[in-house]
Design brief:
The chain has 270 residues and is α+β, with helices and mostly antiparallel strands. It folds into two domains: 4-129, MutM-like, N-terminal (N-terminal domain of MutM-like DNA repair proteins); 142-264, Helicase, Ruva Protein, domain 3, CATH 1.10.8. 27% of the residues lie in helices and 22% in strands. It contains seven helices and eleven strands. The protein has helices spanning 4-18, 41-45, 126-129, 142-148, 156-161, 171-181, 194-218, and strands at 23-28, 50-56, 59-64, 68-73, 79-82, 91-97, 102-106, 113-118, 228-229, 253-257, 260-264. Strand 10 (253-257) and strand 11 form a beta hairpin. It is elongated and about 55 Å long. The structure holds a DNA duplex (16 and 16 nucleotides).
Length: 270
Amino acid sequence: MPELPEVETTVAGLRPALEGKRLTRVEPRRPDLRRPFPPDLRQRMTGARVTSLGRRAKYGLIETDRGDVMIFHLGMSGRWRIDPTELEKHDHLLLETEEKRQLVLNDPRRFGSVDLIKLEELEAFETFSKMGPEPLGDSFNAAYLKQVTKGRKAPIKQLLLDQRNVAGLGNIYVCEALHMAGISPRRMGGQISKARYEKLVSAIKQVLESAIAAGGSSLRDFVRPDGELGYFAKDWLVYGREGSPCHCGAIVKRRVDSGRSTFYCAKCQK
DNA sequence: ACGCACCCCTGTGCGC
DNA sequence: TGCGCACAGGGGTGCG
């Protein structure tokens, strides 16, 4: 479920419980998620102090004073819970701090991942080195998008979901941003004007920023009453609204490509 | 290189 | 109440 804003919100929620704190317990509760947990995860993280938390694309970063970085990805169904009253099914990784606060990574589908690398390997870490710019950064702009899509015949939706072009966009926010910019998800990337890319870039930044703001404000003190992090309700304009009226009056449509749904308004988006 | 289909996994909600 | 199917916000691989 989590896209960039959800990961951003999750990291912000974990920070008060983790930053500056010493880990007294690090416990994988099964061998693997998408891939095996690092075999030395427990040993390298236990006793270490968390120095900072961050985010790159849809990955959360937890750095320690031993020069390690634990990199987590929430996949489709991952979420962190804080100070749970008891462990549940699919609680696959448990962290505990000196203060006896518990952070539990729950991921039913196990499409998520946890990696552990040295801080100095972060830049070269293949997952990140192949990635495009952060969508909220200044280097993600219309000129960049125009250049990276030049000559490409793939639909713009697919190009935006490709993390090598821009890092952190997922299905929901791409659908929403394309709708906001009035661009058809099937429009060939190489065929979109600079002016329309200006609109698209603004739409992407706006959609992400408002989602982050909504996430932050919906998490009072960054911990919801149920102790969960990473989810917040949002009223989408097209996503999940097949058959409902668009604000223009036309009906929102859904199509499926490679097993992924696209929601759009054929009247607003050309 | 590019565009696309499909797979990993479990849970949920729907129609019958 | 049960059953089977479609579908879910990600990412990687492998094919033509």
